[in-house]
Amino acid sequence: MPVLKFKPGRVEEVLGLSLDKALEIMEKLKIEVELDEEGNVVAELEVDRPDMYSLEGIARQAKGLLGRELGLPKYEVVDSSYRIVAEDVPTRPYIAGAIVWDVDVDEDFLEELIQFQEKLHTSHGGRRRRVAIGLHDLDKLPSKNITYRFVDIDGVVFKPLHHERTMTLREVLEETSQGKSYGSISLRDNKHPVLYSGNDVISVPPVINADLTRIEPGTRHIFIDVTGTELKPVLDILSILAANLAERSKSKRIGIVEVKAPWGMLREPQLKPSSMVLDVKYASKVIGTRLAPSDVIESLQRMRFGAREAGNGLVDVEVPRFRVDILHPVDLVEEIVLARGLDNLAPERPRLMLRGSLLPVRAWEREARLLLVGHGFVEVYSYSLTSCRDQVELAGVEEDKLVRIDNPVGLESECLRASLLPQLLRIARTNQHAVPLRVFELGDVVVADSADRERGVVHRRRLALLYMDEKAGYEDVQSIVYSLIRLLGDEIIEVKPTRHGLFIEGRTAELRTQRGVVAVIGEVKPQILEQLEISYPIAAAELDYTSIHSQG
């Protein structure tokens, strides 16, 4: 959770409230606040609200909550004569820019601006790997023509920010603290991204700016550059920065910077709001109170959204460009709750006073755990994220059924698991010293399903069990599954041969029970055991007990 620090005088000045009232309104915006030993305001924010990582962003939201300013914030977005020409930069291809005039930087704001920049770097910027920000004094730019190049680190000479001497880029990467921390991110074959204004270096993203365009007290206008490995987060961060700086600007003027690059052309920031439709009945159901369209509109306008009635119980909503956290109508419902105040939601006495009890599926799971432990099995837990290749090759999951992760941290976490069996095999591989090995796992799997229009995926509950021994076979696991089903008060109604990518053909069966449990049982193919370097035979089973969810 991002933790920010502000001087109390600045909080009062920007929010236009006494300190006590300012802290109260911040808490209503889900910001945890306290005063440290020096009297500074320490604010802990939700990570998904980068638009409030600065006092100006918090004040924008507070003005709406207080009714001082309603609806979409208004900024004057105009063309500027600044242009970025980007060459092919393979390690960090995307770049965008913006100008904000009349910001008028003083010492306190400069301190907060650096904090704002670093919090964005750490959270949404992935510690500068995904997105990096450069902030410059516009009046110090040598030229309006800016170029973004991938150049040899020995051919670049400039004076880094807050350093006394001119250095080569190689020296910057090897000798400065910023170079040591971030120099390897975009470096390839002794080449690195560099941003020029005219013939002068102004930034080496994501490492450091040049001292030439340093922002200091007295700076009036700010030029922003944002670089990254994907275009969407670059434009998201650019919009947040431009809007928050414009909140401080006396003129609220934002300049569009044109970018020409191998991947295309753009003119940003446009700050055009996106559109959503909110069903008033849906909002009422989620909150648990009856709302009229006028209630929804008034609440959303106080949270700085554009809102108007669309008829048939629907409300058209305009979402500010900087609100990158709004992804689903339920996010708008949360905004309505914040506008109305959690403390203003009247409690209701339950119509029926009932004793709590386990859901049928939880009772089933509890009993299954106890029974399997009684059969000598040990429960294990594995990650929900796994290798796509394992899911296909070891569990026979079809490619189009996999739910893939955008921008995964590695090949071992690129998919949500659609089967529990591959993880059990990996566990068996590393525990061959412990034969006979009996392990099981209960948990969710996720399968892509186009029939689910809202999410495009379905969640299913699975139980997988594995037995590894010198003479492990189909019958060993079959007897456990049959015993488990009988002791859980269920009955097998169908057993038939089947095929499965993990199991030997002719030694694989599928069964169904009266309560809707579906199981596949089999002996693992020798070639898969050889591939995993497992020396012992393995028999395994996977039970899908999702049907228990719907049973009363």
Strand percentage: 25-35%
CATH classification class of the largest domain: Alpha Beta
Outline the biggest β-sheet.
10 strands, mixed
Structural class: alpha+beta
What is the number of independent domains? 4
Contiguous runs where pLDDT drops below 50 for at least 5 residues: none
Residue share in helix:
25-40%
How far apart are the termini?
Answer: 40 Å
Looking at the structure, the CATH topology of the largest domain is Phenylalanyl-tRNA Synthetase, Chain B, domain 3
Report the total helices.
15
How many strand units?
28
CATH architecture grouping of the largest domain: 3-Layer(bba) Sandwich
The named CATH superfamily of the largest domain: Phenylalanyl-trna Synthetase, Chain B, domain 3
Shape verdict: globular
Rg estimate, integer Å: 29 Å
Write down the overall mean pLDDT: 93
Write the layout of secondary structure elements.
Layout (H helix, E strand, L loop, with lengths): L2 E4 L1 H8 L3 H10 L3 E4 L5 E4 L10 H11 L10 E11 L7 E7 L6 H16 L8 E7 L7 E8 L4 E2 L8 E2 H7 L1 H6 L8 E7 L2 E5 L3 E2 L12 E7 L2 H18 L4 E9 L2 E5 L5 E6 H8 L5 H10 L3 E6 L2 E6 L9 H12 L19 H15 L3 E2 L5 E2 L1 H6 L9 E2 L10 E2 L4 H9 L7 E12 L8 E12 L5 H14 L4 E6 L5 E11 L4 E7 L1 H6 L6 E7 L8
Parallel strand pairs: 4-7, 4-14, 19-23
Antiparallel strand pairs: 1-3, 2-3, 5-13, 5-14, 6-13, 7-10, 8-9, 10-11, 11-12, 14-15, 16-18, 17-18, 20-22, 21-22, 23-24, 24-28, 25-26, 26-27, 27-28
Catalytic activity: tRNA(Phe) + L-phenylalanine + ATP = L-phenylalanyl-tRNA(Phe) + AMP + diphosphate + H(+)
Keywords: Aminoacyl-tRNA synthetase, ATP-binding, Cytoplasm, Ligase, Magnesium, Metal-binding, Nucleotide-binding, Protein biosynthesis
Cofactor: Mg(2+)
